Amino acid sequence: MLLAGALAGLVLAVAALPGGLLGGQVAKAALGAYAELPDALRTPAQPQRSYLYANDGKTLITTFYDVNRTDVPLAEIAPVMRQAIVAAEDRRFYSHGGADLRGIARALVANLRGGGTEQGGSTLTMQYVRNVLKTDPTRTAEERQAATEQTVGRKIQEIRYAGALEKTLSKDEILNRYLNIAYFGSGAYGVAAASQRYFGKAPGDLTLGEAALLAGLVQSPDEYSPIDGDKARALERRAYVLDAMAGTGAITAAQAASAKAEKLTLHPTAQPNGCTAVAQGHDDWGFFCDYLRQWWLTQPAFGNTVKEREQALRRGGYTVVTSLDPKVQQTAQQQATAVYGYDNKRALPIAAVEPGTGRVLAMAVNRHYSLDENPAGQANRPNTVNPLISGGDSVDGYQAGSTFKMFTMLAALEAGKPLSTGFDAPAKLPTRYAAEGEGACDGKWCPANANPQWMDGYRMMWDGFGRSVNTYFVWLAEQVGPAKAVEMAQRLGITFRADSDAAFARDDAENWGAFTLGVAATTPLDLANAYATVAAEGTYCTPLPVVSVTAANGEKVAVGQPSCKKVLDTDVARAATDAARCPVGQQSAYGQCNGGTATSVDRIVGRPVAGKTGSSEQNATETFVGFTPQVAVAGIAANPDDSTDLVGAAVQAKVIDAVARVMKTAVSGQPVKDFTAPSRELAGDPQRPKPQPTPRPDQPRQQQDRGIPSDLLRWLQNRRG
């Protein structure tokens, strides 16, 4: 009552002034107030929803927000919506100078008399000022609270700020800003969010009845909301707004009557928020979304701290076009679930990467990305949010077996050893590394070939890699030093997340003889990107989950460009690729392939392709990574919760088939590109001094590819010094 009395006196005193004097005083006050305007009123920094799209820029993955709102220009808001909000909240909007003093006086008198709904005297401009100041993220909580205090001083300041804005912004600019910030209930801030929330449409498509209903909500959004509040009250408010529109001449009485008679038809649309709320039927996208979010939190462009970057994602109104390819993702998910169902304790995580950019095209696994509760005894299935494809948190990765022979081969080529480097590979190879028990020969580690008849004999890098000859690559690692193979893997992006692996790499890499057989844990994403580096002829690119990021003001953020560097000599990469043609059933440029462990890939992909299989000891895991010049894909079959659960050799062919089909989808419609042959210098002189063993007639073409005995593996992994 005291506030009302004070304001009434102020308003009546001002209203009694002559018109010319009133205009001069208001102008003077407005100019003074403009100098004091908070930055938020000059350049609004209101929280907005961020959108994540697939690489087509159209397929919505999800949104992130603290406040569900998105700014839209006035031209994209239906004219009836603009007319409805003016009629409902400020009929004299286009004639006053920011503060409608007579309107305030009229509201005060009505409120003092009582007997009906409380009336407000704030103009749209004053409401806009209040909304900005109470939600400005740059102000303290105390300052935001003060913006709504019921005091004379606050009201006078609001009037002065409104007058200042009216002197600097056009009426349409103020109306546009108001419509983009007003709260319409049910969590929707701004007309774009409101039209989607209530009617599932853009604000430019609102009908007269829909616009009138939305305009009626802003006076008491929680009470009038037809979703969360009172539907009958919402219809009463709609009728009030329609009558008000007829009163302003915006519509005819007949139009108002027709709209009043319309049945209220809602299409409530809840905007997804975060990675667990991806588009319906696509919860597999959540793993990619989570990877993008983790990447976002490392980018200085979005803030100096992790907290600031998280806030930027949820409040900054960014439009993010990600690198996710829906078609490749769909194939990857179909293939992963074809091998293992969602409820299977074993998993097949698959990752696809684009060589030369590092852009991640797909991340799939036979799990739902969800926080939903799992059945008793099933910790991570069928639902999980653990990064099974990219690693991190509690996920160290999985042994990838002989796929790590690539790093030894690259190290040897870089050291000047040509592809023709020959060695008479025995069934077992005594090494310089001390060992006891199974797998030891006279106190030395003695690795064996999985299929001696098919693998033993004189080998060069071509058929040593094609047939995955353990003893050849352990010998080759000894020639160049295991530390160089370890360093090569790290150079190509292999991260040692397991503590034991990191300790070996840091303290004892030169004695890590088993490294070439893939005893270190890795992830499909790391492995695919490492092989993508070879496909890109030695150019390593940091894995990148985005194509572009656009800020709310329309400016591009400088984070969408690939971050690449040359880490291998071009000819070295070409030589390794030439040898990698052998495992997949194709022929090297020098005609030296004579058998492979994944020969079905050539038939499936149907264009130049390379790759490598990998089986860890006792077939605990099965891996295949393949690449063309345009894509690299890796899949690892494993039990992510129990490394002692052996997936078995039978699944190897399925893993190979799954990865190959993902590659085929990824390159579909793209021009066929061939690999460039390496120089004669790195090829060397491929002379074979001994006849080659040939497979028995009953020998399967797709060969088993195995590692080292499990007890020796444990000893090697735990050995120090």
TrEMBL record:
A Pfam family annotated for this UniProt entry: Transgly
Region (Disordered): 671-721
Reactions catalysed according to its record: Preferential cleavage: (Ac)2-L-Lys-D-Ala-|-D-Ala. Also transpeptidation of peptidyl-alanyl moieties that are N-acyl substituents of D-alanine; [GlcNAc-(1->4)-Mur2Ac(oyl-L-Ala-gamma-D-Glu-L-Lys-D-Ala-D-Ala)](n)-di-trans,octa-cis-undecaprenyl diphosphate + beta-D-GlcNAc-(1->4)-Mur2Ac(oyl-L-Ala-gamma-D-Glu-L-Lys-D-Ala-D-Ala)-di-trans,octa-cis-undecaprenyl diphosphate = [GlcNAc-(1->4)-Mur2Ac(oyl-L-Ala-gamma-D-Glu-L-Lys-D-Ala-D-Ala)](n+1)-di-trans,octa-cis-undecaprenyl diphosphate + di-trans,octa-cis-undecaprenyl diphosphate + H(+)
Domain of life: Bacteria
Keyword annotations from UniProtKB, A to Z: Carboxypeptidase, Cell shape, Cell wall biogenesis/degradation, Glycosyltransferase, Hydrolase, Multifunctional enzyme, Peptidoglycan synthesis, Protease, Transferase
SUPFAM superfamilies for the chain: beta-lactamase/transpeptidase-like, Lysozyme-like
Any single GO BP term: cell wall organization
GO cellular component, one term: outer membrane-bounded periplasmic space
Domain Glycosyl transferase family, residue spans: 60-245
GO MF annotation: an example: serine-type D-Ala-D-Ala carboxypeptidase activity
Domain Penicillin-binding protein transpeptidase span(s) in chain numbering: 351-641
Protein family membership: In the C-terminal section; belongs to the transpeptidase family.
Name this polypeptide is given: Membrane carboxypeptidase (Penicillin-binding protein)
